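Q: Given only this backbone (176 positions), what sequence would you predict?
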Protein backbone atom coordinates (compact mmCIF):
# COMPACT_ATOMS: atom_id res chain seq x y z
CA UNK A 1 0.00 0.00 0.00
CA UNK A 2 3.01 2.22 0.45
CA UNK A 3 3.46 2.55 -3.32
CA UNK A 4 -0.24 2.67 -4.27
CA UNK A 5 0.09 6.37 -5.02
CA UNK A 6 2.04 5.41 -8.15
CA UNK A 7 -1.24 4.17 -9.63
CA UNK A 8 -2.45 7.77 -9.88
CA UNK A 9 -1.47 10.08 -12.76
CA UNK A 10 0.99 12.93 -12.44
CA UNK A 11 -1.58 15.53 -13.50
CA UNK A 12 -3.00 18.52 -11.71
CA UNK A 13 -6.57 17.40 -12.49
CA UNK A 14 -8.16 14.00 -12.97
CA UNK A 15 -11.62 13.00 -14.09
CA UNK A 16 -13.32 10.32 -12.00
CA UNK A 17 -16.84 9.27 -13.02
CA UNK A 18 -17.42 12.53 -14.83
CA UNK A 19 -16.27 14.67 -11.91
CA UNK A 20 -13.06 16.67 -12.20
CA UNK A 21 -10.88 16.64 -9.10
CA UNK A 22 -8.16 19.25 -8.78
CA UNK A 23 -4.98 18.54 -6.82
CA UNK A 24 -5.36 22.02 -5.30
CA UNK A 25 -2.10 23.17 -3.69
CA UNK A 26 -0.35 19.83 -4.28
CA UNK A 27 1.95 19.78 -7.30
CA UNK A 28 0.06 16.87 -8.88
CA UNK A 29 -2.57 14.31 -8.08
CA UNK A 30 0.03 11.64 -7.35
CA UNK A 31 1.35 13.74 -4.46
CA UNK A 32 -2.17 14.26 -3.18
CA UNK A 33 -2.81 10.49 -3.34
CA UNK A 34 0.45 9.85 -1.48
CA UNK A 35 -0.60 12.17 1.39
CA UNK A 36 -4.07 10.61 1.71
CA UNK A 37 -2.84 7.02 1.44
CA UNK A 38 -0.15 7.62 4.07
CA UNK A 39 -2.81 8.87 6.50
CA UNK A 40 -5.02 5.85 5.75
CA UNK A 41 -2.07 3.49 6.26
CA UNK A 42 -1.27 5.05 9.63
CA UNK A 43 -4.92 4.91 10.73
CA UNK A 44 -5.19 1.23 9.74
CA UNK A 45 -1.93 0.38 11.51
CA UNK A 46 -3.01 2.10 14.72
CA UNK A 47 -6.47 0.53 14.52
CA UNK A 48 -5.00 -2.97 14.18
CA UNK A 49 -2.61 -2.30 17.04
CA UNK A 50 -5.48 -1.06 19.19
CA UNK A 51 -7.56 -4.14 18.37
CA UNK A 52 -4.82 -6.63 19.12
CA UNK A 53 -3.02 -5.11 22.11
CA UNK A 54 -3.95 -6.32 25.57
CA UNK A 55 -1.79 -3.94 27.60
CA UNK A 56 -3.02 -1.43 30.16
CA UNK A 57 -1.81 1.55 28.10
CA UNK A 58 -3.95 0.70 25.05
CA UNK A 59 -6.21 3.76 25.47
CA UNK A 60 -3.27 6.08 24.72
CA UNK A 61 -3.36 4.87 21.10
CA UNK A 62 -6.60 6.79 20.68
CA UNK A 63 -4.68 10.08 20.82
CA UNK A 64 -2.53 9.56 17.68
CA UNK A 65 -5.50 7.86 16.04
CA UNK A 66 -7.53 11.02 16.65
CA UNK A 67 -4.75 13.14 15.17
CA UNK A 68 -4.43 11.02 12.03
CA UNK A 69 -8.21 10.92 11.49
CA UNK A 70 -8.24 14.70 11.78
CA UNK A 71 -5.34 15.00 9.33
CA UNK A 72 -7.05 12.65 6.89
CA UNK A 73 -10.26 14.68 6.97
CA UNK A 74 -8.32 17.88 6.43
CA UNK A 75 -6.25 16.32 3.62
CA UNK A 76 -9.38 15.21 1.78
CA UNK A 77 -10.88 18.69 2.10
CA UNK A 78 -8.99 20.38 -0.73
CA UNK A 79 -10.64 23.75 -0.18
CA UNK A 80 -8.37 24.38 2.83
CA UNK A 81 -5.03 25.89 1.97
CA UNK A 82 -3.09 25.23 5.19
CA UNK A 83 -4.93 22.70 7.30
CA UNK A 84 -2.24 22.33 9.97
CA UNK A 85 -2.86 25.94 10.97
CA UNK A 86 -6.51 25.22 11.83
CA UNK A 87 -7.43 25.26 15.48
CA UNK A 88 -7.51 21.93 17.32
CA UNK A 89 -11.08 22.62 18.44
CA UNK A 90 -12.34 22.07 14.91
CA UNK A 91 -10.40 18.84 14.73
CA UNK A 92 -11.81 17.66 18.03
CA UNK A 93 -15.34 18.50 16.95
CA UNK A 94 -14.88 16.50 13.76
CA UNK A 95 -13.02 13.51 15.13
CA UNK A 96 -14.32 13.11 18.67
CA UNK A 97 -17.58 11.42 17.59
CA UNK A 98 -15.63 9.15 15.24
CA UNK A 99 -13.21 8.08 17.96
CA UNK A 100 -16.05 7.60 20.46
CA UNK A 101 -17.95 5.42 18.00
CA UNK A 102 -14.76 3.49 17.26
CA UNK A 103 -14.07 3.01 20.97
CA UNK A 104 -17.58 1.73 21.74
CA UNK A 105 -17.53 -0.54 18.70
CA UNK A 106 -14.23 -2.06 19.84
CA UNK A 107 -15.61 -2.56 23.36
CA UNK A 108 -18.64 -4.39 21.93
CA UNK A 109 -16.43 -6.59 19.77
CA UNK A 110 -14.15 -7.41 22.71
CA UNK A 111 -17.16 -8.24 24.90
CA UNK A 112 -18.64 -10.48 22.20
CA UNK A 113 -15.32 -12.29 21.76
CA UNK A 114 -14.96 -12.78 25.51
CA UNK A 115 -18.52 -14.14 25.77
CA UNK A 116 -17.86 -16.48 22.88
CA UNK A 117 -14.68 -17.74 24.53
CA UNK A 118 -16.45 -18.24 27.87
CA UNK A 119 -19.31 -20.05 26.16
CA UNK A 120 -16.85 -22.34 24.42
CA UNK A 121 -15.05 -23.06 27.70
CA UNK A 122 -18.37 -23.84 29.40
CA UNK A 123 -19.33 -26.24 26.61
CA UNK A 124 -16.02 -28.09 26.97
CA UNK A 125 -16.46 -28.25 30.75
CA UNK A 126 -20.02 -29.58 30.41
CA UNK A 127 -18.87 -32.27 27.99
CA UNK A 128 -16.10 -33.34 30.39
CA UNK A 129 -18.44 -33.41 33.38
CA UNK A 130 -21.10 -35.41 31.54
CA UNK A 131 -18.47 -37.88 30.44
CA UNK A 132 -17.06 -38.27 33.97
CA UNK A 133 -20.48 -38.56 35.59
CA UNK A 134 -21.74 -41.07 33.07
CA UNK A 135 -18.69 -43.26 33.75
CA UNK A 136 -19.11 -42.99 37.53
CA UNK A 137 -22.88 -43.52 37.64
CA UNK A 138 -23.13 -46.02 34.82
CA UNK A 139 -25.29 -43.69 32.71
CA UNK A 140 -25.37 -43.90 28.95
CA UNK A 141 -23.34 -40.94 27.77
CA UNK A 142 -24.91 -40.71 24.32
CA UNK A 143 -28.52 -40.81 25.56
CA UNK A 144 -27.77 -38.18 28.19
CA UNK A 145 -26.06 -35.98 25.62
CA UNK A 146 -29.04 -36.36 23.28
CA UNK A 147 -31.43 -35.32 26.07
CA UNK A 148 -29.28 -32.25 26.75
CA UNK A 149 -29.22 -31.34 23.05
CA UNK A 150 -33.00 -31.76 22.89
CA UNK A 151 -33.51 -29.40 25.83
CA UNK A 152 -31.13 -26.88 24.26
CA UNK A 153 -32.98 -27.02 20.95
CA UNK A 154 -36.26 -26.28 22.78
CA UNK A 155 -34.78 -23.27 24.61
CA UNK A 156 -36.19 -20.63 22.20
CA UNK A 157 -39.68 -22.08 22.65
CA UNK A 158 -39.53 -22.36 26.44
CA UNK A 159 -39.63 -19.59 28.99
CA UNK A 160 -36.70 -19.22 31.37
CA UNK A 161 -38.27 -21.04 34.33
CA UNK A 162 -39.34 -24.09 32.32
CA UNK A 163 -35.94 -24.29 30.65
CA UNK A 164 -34.16 -24.16 34.02
CA UNK A 165 -36.53 -26.80 35.46
CA UNK A 166 -35.72 -29.10 32.54
CA UNK A 167 -32.00 -28.63 33.13
CA UNK A 168 -32.43 -29.22 36.87
CA UNK A 169 -34.37 -32.43 36.15
CA UNK A 170 -31.54 -33.60 33.91
CA UNK A 171 -29.01 -32.69 36.62
CA UNK A 172 -30.99 -34.71 39.18
CA UNK A 173 -30.86 -37.72 36.87
CA UNK A 174 -27.08 -37.51 36.80
CA UNK A 175 -26.62 -37.11 40.52
CA UNK A 176 -29.09 -39.89 41.43
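A: Predicted residues:
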Amino acid sequence: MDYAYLLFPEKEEINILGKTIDSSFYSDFQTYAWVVLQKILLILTLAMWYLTAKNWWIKILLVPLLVFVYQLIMSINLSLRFFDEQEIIFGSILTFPIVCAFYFLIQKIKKALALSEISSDIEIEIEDLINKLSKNNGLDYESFKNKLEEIRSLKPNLNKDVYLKELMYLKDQISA
